[in-house]
Structure prediction request, 861 residues.
Amino acid sequence: MSEATIENKGIALSDSKLGVINSDLALIQSKKGVRRLNRQIRTENTFRKMLLLMGLIMILLVIGILFTLLLESIPSLKALGLKYLWGKTWDPVQDIYGAYPFLLGTLLTSFLALIISIPFSIAIAVFLGEYYPKGWIPDFLKNTVELIAAVPSVIYGFWGLAVLVPMVRSLETTLHVDPYGVGIFTSSLILAVMIIPYAASLGRSVIQMVPSSLKEGAYALGATRWEVIRSVIIPYTKSGLFAGILLSLGRALGETMAVTMVIGNTSIIPKSIFAPGNTMASVIANEFTEADKPVYLSALIELGLVLFLVTVVINMIGKRVIRRFTNE
Amino acid sequence: MESTIVKSVDYNAYFGDNHVVKNVNISIPRNHVIAVMGPSGCGKTTFLRGINRMHELIPNATANGQILLNNEDVMQMHPIFVRLKIGMVFQRPNPFPNLSIYDNVIAGYKLNGISLARMDRDRIVEESLSKVALWKEVKDSLTKKGTFLSGGQQQKLCIARAVAMQPEVLLFDEPTSALDPISTSSVEELFHDLKKNYTLIIVTHNMQQAARVSDQTAFFYLGELVEFDDTKKMFTNPKDKRTQNYITGRFS
Amino acid sequence: MSQSVQYRIGISRIVRVITIVLAFACILPLFAILFYIIKAGITRVNWSFLVNVPKPVGEKGGGIANALLGTFLIIIVASLIAIPVGIMCGVFLSENRKSRLAYWSRLCVDILQGVPSIVIGIIAYFWLVKPLGGFSALSGSVALAIMMLPIVIRSTEETLKLLPDSLKEAAFALGMPFHRVILKVIVPCGISGILSGVMLSIARVAGETAPLLFTAFGNPYLSANITKPMQSLPLLIFNYATSPYNDWHDLAWGASVILLVFVLLLNISTKLITKRWKVQL
Prediction:
């Protein structure tokens, strides 16, 4: 911005002054030319201010989001207090609000999804980062995996409803549990597919950053490929891989539509991973437009606030870890 | 001495707390080629960039003192006016990659939003390219991208781009350091022709080049202007011990 | 060769095979989804499907014209908001790499990128739906615009950072004012990167449902009034897919094919454009 401060001097120049300075410059000797240049200087300053404003808007946007969520949560905070978060019953008809079923549902689906997806995303990361970094087959794999993230979540949900739910139902029948089909487990399966690309692409790039001298050192000692991966690559990249998993988790926590469509939408605490339930995001999606009482609506928004804070913290930690990794 | 076109009075330039150009006083005569030489880090490029207020574009860079162009202080003018009157050519050829050769030459008008009649445009392009001895080579490929040319041709295109704005002074920041020897000599030949219409200030770290192309030479050392004299005199009989050391290669 | 070495090499080979199998197993669900949806939906897609509005339950036929128009309008309005703001903010961040405001601004863009889409929906509800007194396509557009912003901003910033300083210097040295340097030189030279960010952001929000649930809300009729509720493809898919009627499921399958093809084409063409259009520096 140093130029802005210096250039501000320029605005003070009057038409006549400019005319004198540039009297011999064919381009701008006419009155029209001087006016044009003055206009440009004004536009230049306006433009700088506009850019500054845009930068400011982003900050205001985030503060605004936080502030709005806080403000709209106040009725619920006042009426229910903090015990709202571990209240076990959610019954809007009786005016009883407890968020525990949704917190539990969110944690169960997200972590289950994470556990299912980790072996796959690490495999892709190792395959693309170490085994086969170049060639058309890895290119194809990389682009296809990226497309997984591109499919709209409502389509995952619809497919899950039509294909996965019957499959899980028959699995549940063979396992002799209540064959709902929908539920925590089904949601986790869909989520697992959806979040694979996030950890995989970050994992791939950190694995490619492992200095070849380190790997060569291990090979020179007679290590096999697997031993190099296990004792050189994984330890070297573990913070980067961790960050990728965090970003995946952030996605899973906030994912709404696909989960809403296959989780069963019940506010009863799930008894097993095959039982139906609700996540924070899915209960908001389902009940927001039906919430007819101020406390009911406010309780839903408080869930949104929790969701916002948790995902922000997770994403920030993830990004900080990546930044530290890439700077080292 | 002939009439002075650029004069600096107690000019200082800084990067943050780093004082890189110290109290420079120099009077540059009109229609001459002036070489500015010195070891790297001596402030010669910073001084050059100070003349047309490019120095300030770098974050934390500041300057004080006076740079007079025809007795008017450029430090008090808006940088846009200064840069319209003092053109600049850089170390690496930097034609606009998104523009054709033709558009590159009139980039100063086109991108500044100055509308010209088709005839004027064609005339400016032809004149400017002729002045840099590039017209014959590129007149049939004016619509091709500027980056399509060879390094030496690109640098000439950049000179033509600066010339097209009809400036009074042309600044060159080590204009041939990124070029091969043949391109270098063809660019050097230009300097002689260009000085009829313009005053040329050329920063170079190549002593032979300074000796070949310039009328006067300024020697910078550790941010100070050590000596400014006719090139011949400077290279045969330098007044200052430091200049002598530099010319004889005791430090570089 | 000793036995233990053979054993170690054997383990290494097995791990490699497992890695390959797991890696390629990931793309199976994608192809399963593509295959299933196209199989279920492609027979529904024909001209009358594209130009008619849905029929009530029990009547055969009907189409998704209202959702197509709605998606199109909502995205256009969202782009009109997000593209200029996003590019300008990206320029601001790349021009001010070290300033304090830029630091906080960049942090906020990072935060914005991670905000769950449902939360954005809540925000748009309180900022627009409530003050304006009803659901509207406009509020949906604003919600989507907020989601597009981080993608446009980051891609603009990253692209412009890669441009050499010499380009900017050349422009300044010709006496160009700052805004012209940016708009006539810097942005045009980085246009392929910026454009790919814009296309990616559109691809990303085209399939978003959650932010539209309490904003655009959905509308069974054809509407082009952005101050009124409007249907969109993802909303239609959600509402009809979760309904108990087979006719509506069919409609949702058809809509899914259209949405999926649109989103995937946008993604793939973005990749091609970034490869082809790169300005040679």
